[in-house]
C-alpha cells in the first residue's frame, strides 16, 4: 500500500481497514392462498347501473318518488275533515280579501249611446249590485246578454280606472215597417227586428212592407224603395207574395207585380216607361212583369167601361159581371136617384 501514496507514509499505514457490514435483507415472506379481488361489479350492481342510465328511470327516481312521497304525506294530512275545512276556509278568506280590495271594486256604471229603454234594460242585466268586485262581473257573458236585445247592434264593455263600468252601445236604426199577421214591427236595413209598433202612424216617415217572409228579404226591399225615386211619393209599400217575389203597391190601387229574379231591373224598366209615356198616370190597375218577355197591363174599371160603351156593350161592375140596366158601376140603382131629382 505504500507505493500508492507518493507523498510519504501515513501514520496509520499499518492499521487494517474498518469492516463494513452489509444491510440485512428482509426475510422472504411465506406465500398465502388469499385470492385477488375481482374489480368487475356484481351482476346486480351492473343491472342497477344500466337502469340508471335510462332517462325515464332517472326522472322517476329524482322526481317521481319524491313527488309520490309528498303526495302521500299531503293525502294523509288532508284525510282529516277538520283540517280540510280549515284549509278551505283559509283559502276562501284569502281569495275574498284579495278580490275585494279597493283596486278591484266597481262602484258605478256609465252607458253611452243608448236610449232610455236600452239603458234601463242594460242596467237590469248586471249580475250583481254595485258596488261589487270586478271578478264577479263576467264582461263577455254580459256582452252576450246585451246583444240579445233587439235594439242593440253592438256594445263595448270596459272597466275603467276608478271603478267605473263603461258601456258604449250602438243601437239599430229603424229603416222600414213590417206588417204581418201578428202586428207591426220596426226593422233595420238588414231585416233585424228593432221594436214593435202599435200602428202605422208611430213612424209615418218609414216605408212599409207586408207579407210573411218580408223580413228575410228586407235588404232587397230597401234596394227597390231606393230605386223607386220618381214614384216614391205615390208608393204605399211593398208586399211579399209567396215568400219569393214583391208587389209594388201605389196609390189609386195600382200594383206592379215584379218577378222573383231581376226585380230591381224590372222596376227600373217600369219607371223608365212611366217617365217616357206617363203610363202610371193613366187608368191602369196592374202592371204584370212576372214574365220577362211578356209584360201584361191590366186597365182599370173606368177605362174598361169606357171601351165597352164605345163598343155599345153593357158596363161591368167590380166583380166583372155586366151591370143591370138602371144601376151604376157600383151596383146601386139609378132609378130612385132620378125620381128624387124630378121631385126636387
UniProtKB/TrEMBL annotation:
Listed Gene3D superfamilies: Cell division protein FtsQ/DivIB
GO CC, alphabetical: cell division site; plasma membrane
Location relative to the cell: Cell inner membrane; Membrane
Domain POTRA: 104-172
Keywords associated with the record: Cell cycle, Cell division, Cell inner membrane, Cell membrane, Membrane, Transmembrane, Transmembrane helix
Matching Pfam families: FtsQ_DivIB_C
Superkingdom of origin organism: Bacteria
Membrane-protein topology: Single-pass type II membrane protein
GO biological process, alphabetically ordered: cell septum assembly; FtsZ-dependent cytokinesis
Family: Belongs to the FtsQ/DivIB family. FtsQ subfamily.
Primary role: Essential cell division protein.
Name this polypeptide is given: Cell division protein FtsQ
Native species: Paracoccus shanxieyensis
Source species taxonomy: Bacteria, Pseudomonadati, Pseudomonadota, Alphaproteobacteria, Rhodobacterales
